[in-house]
Amino acid sequence: MSNIIPQEFIDRMKKDLGDEAESFLGSYFASPKKALRINTLKIDEKTEERLTGGMQPVPWEKHGYYYMERDMYAEDMDEVPVNESWRMAPGKSPLHSAGAYYIQEPSAMAPVSMLDVRPGMCVLDLCAAPGGKSTQIAAYLAGDGLLMANEPVRERARILSQNIERMGIANAVVINHDPAELVRSFPAAFDRILVDAPCSGEGMFRKDKTAVEEWSEENVEKCAIRQRVILDAAVSMLKPGGRLVYSTCTFSREEDEEQIAGILAKYPGLHIAFMSPFAGIRAGDMEGTYRIWPQDGQGEGHFMAVLERDGSLQNSSFGYIGPRQKSLTNKEKQQLISYLDFINENLQNESLKKKLRDTEHLFLFGERLFLMPKGGLPALEGLKILRAGLELGEIKKDRFVPAHSFALYLKKEEVLHQCDLEHDGEEIRAYLNGQSLPAKSPATDDNGWYLMTCSGISLGWAKVSNGLMKNHYPKGLRINY
């Protein structure tokens, strides 16, 4: 065992767990559970039932499901139902590129389930990359409210931004700051805050070799110091009556229970919010804390605590209450002719067209046009921003070029021109590889922009001209099958 995980860690867990240490250490010889979460922003209930029929649900997330990879199926591939074939390698399926689901470690789905996110709220995910919990929060918001997703590491923030885009999320701002830098901009600003703190990663030893290699008692203490700073910042940005969930994927008490005890002692206006744990989640060593243990067979190690700030959070205070981003100037509004023509010529949902024409919720970054959420965006000056609201496209003199994020946001019934490709067909593989396709008469007789879909789920743009569908799938996302 010591050649798999550090001996110091083994000795500590034996001391902490006593009689249960044997089953805990034995779990390291079992295969990790794998799961995905259906994206309800793009998948309706009927489609979810069709895609996930027979899959075992994750107990603490309504739309989470465990899956088996190819080598766990019968050797005779004819025994695998056709509608389940994508499950054998969900990360390589075109449905993944379309944002139909997010592949997420099952235990990592638990903290957001305790956050109690409701539509209309203003929510901060303070340490957000790669985006599993942020996209889960966005699903709970259901397009109504604001998600601020922050990641201090620039490269990881880019991955976060890509996942926000892939899942078709329109009401998110992705920023790149050290948590302490945000306090000045957002004092007491958020209804809900998630602190999925950077940690020593002990709960990931079974599935992440790097976590094992980087572990040391010194690193545990370094993580604990950093977590205290992050928690201080989070408390300062929480509204009265707001809720904060602190989580880690480690077993260290210094990073878990001791962090909660310390923050409660420092801020008398905070209190523990007691939850009714889901099946598979146990009470922690400190009252009001919760753990997931790998030996229970539901997922990897996770720690959670739910804190609330004293006061009353009224429905009227949902949403962002600080300074707002300014919308278009009169001069900028005059540049919208090609964009408005695109909306009129390519969309057929009148409610959506009205929303997209509302210049009070549009703003420009250079030539790039963005849509704000219904309640507006925070003032963006001084922030390092990777994504703000929904990018609609670029206005280039007399023409409008729609953005990839706009395609992923749309639904097939909202557009006039749409071309559907089966998730296991050759055409969709060619499309995701960047190849042009022959127009499919009569479905694509008309020239112009087409929303490309995968089994009915929006995937990207193509433009038909003279019998050829020119591919507009972004070069950086193209896949070679």
Structural write-up:
With 481 residues, the protein is an alpha+beta fold. The chain has helices at 7-17, 21-26, 45-52, 94-97, 110-113, 132-141, 154-166, 209-214, 217-236, 257-266, 330-333, 337-346, 350-357, 404-409, 426-432, and strands spanning 35-38, 64-66, 101-103, 122-125, 146-150, 172-175, 190-196, 238-248, 270-272, 282-283, 289-292, 302-309, 362-365, 368-371, 385-388, 390-396, 399-402, 418-421, 437-438, 448-454, 457-465, 468-471. The strands form four sheets. Strands 4, 5, 6, 7, 8, 9, 10, 11, 12 and 15 form a ten-stranded mixed beta sheet that branches. Strands 18-20-21-22-19 form a five-stranded mixed beta sheet. 43% of the residues are buried. Residues 71-82 have low confidence and may be disordered.
